[in-house]
Predict the structure.
Amino acid sequence: MHDLLSTDHPCPARRRWMAALARATAERIAALLGDCAELPGYAIIRGPEAGLVMVRGRTGGGGSVFNLGEMSVTRCTVRTDAGFVGHAYVAGREDRRAELAAVVDALMQDQAWTAKLEACVIAPLQREQGQLAKTRAAKAAATRVQFFAMQTMRA
């Protein structure tokens, strides 16, 4: 299975920042952008518009592919006044989140904004999401059942 954030992708940095934006709420992205700087102008080229995508699964991680079901997504494409184009697809029907993610994607391609947005938006989102993942993993580990111990108790 291909790792979503693998480094053999043509643009691993873009995958990394888009993954952080896709997991964040619109309110959190807006708050971080508001603390960063006043955004340059941009125009919406497409969307935001909601649609459906087919989610596919694979039995056992390597078996045959099957259609799991449909999922709502919202997409948006913007162009900054400097000419950089950003795209975003986010799960659910969230127009504002898709628009903000597309704006950040466009600005991250502009060398004048990359370092600033990395420090003000992307890095904080990644830290928060990493901490949330650790918290969830700790909660899951606390409920883990030791089957080996249970088996020896029966003997």
About this structure: The two ends are 40 Å apart (CA to CA). Residues 73 and 91 are 4 Å apart (CA to CA). Residues 12-154 form one domain. Confidence is low (pLDDT under 50) at residues 1-6.
